[in-house]
Amino acid sequence: MTAMRIWIDADACPVVIKDILYKAAERTGVQLTLVANRPMRIPFLRNINFVQVTSGLDVADNEIVRRLDAGDLVITADIPLAANVLEKGGHALNPRGELYSEDSIKSRLSVRDFMDSLRASGIDTGGPPTLNKGDRQNFANQLDKFLTRNHKKL
Q1: What's the pLDDT tens digit per position in 92-107?
Q2: Listed residue (67, 71, 82, 64) closest to 2, CA to CA
Q3: How far is CA 95 from CA 17, 56, 75, 131, in A?
Q4: How many CB atoms lie within 10 A of CB 136?
Q5: Alpha carbons 85 and 100: distance in angstroms, whole number
Q6: Calpha distance 4→84 (Å, rounded)
Q7: At 115, is the pLDDT very low, low, confident or very high (cuts 50, 70, 90)?
């Protein structure tokens, strides 16, 4: 059995969330890999890696799913990616601290599809609210709970 790893859908992940993840990786020794289609600066730690993929629709998402092992954690706000992660036996946590489940992902996919249809018909649905201090705290708390349950320090 391989050790649990954390994968970050890094192109859209807020910097403050990446900073929380870097600190958690340093503290716990968990393997952390950022996947993005543009270069990124990351801390110089043995357990933090970066994978650059080519540009294109879902290229980073597909790379994460391809490399993911059951039990790994993926940080993403991308609902279809989260659904694929759960389907493969992984866990998905969004930057606001919501740990997706089989039940919640179905309703999230339905809402996402509905909003897509509204946008396609010309209705401005706006975007998500700005990440606030409460969201950051909720994320840090959920990450800590997850790591406490699922990761053994090397």
Answers
A1: 999 999 999 888 777 6
A2: 71
A3: 6, 22, 7, 8
A4: 18
A5: 10
A6: 17
A7: low
Residue with tokens 């990786």: 25
Per the CB < 8 A criterion, the answer to whether 39 and 52 are in contact is yes
Q: Compute how many other C-beta atoms are within 10 angstroms of the C-beta atom of residue 73.
A: 24
Amino acid at site 66: R
pTM of the predicted protein model: 0.86
User: How confident is the model over 41-76, as pLDDT tens digits?
Assistant: 999 999 999 999 999 889 999 999 999 999 999 999
What CA–CA distance (Å, rounded) separates 120 from 87?
Answer: 28
Cα–Cα distance for residue pair 152/34, rounded to 1 Å: 21
* 133 sits in which H/E element: helix 133-150
- Describe the crossing of helices 15-28 and 133-150 by its angle, rounded to 10 degrees: 30
Asked whether the predicted pLDDT for residue 117 surpasses 90, the reply is: no
Contacts 24+ apart (CB under 8 A), 52-61: 60/9, 60/10, 60/11, 60/35, 60/36, 61/9
What does the longest C-alpha to C-alpha distance in the chain come to?
52
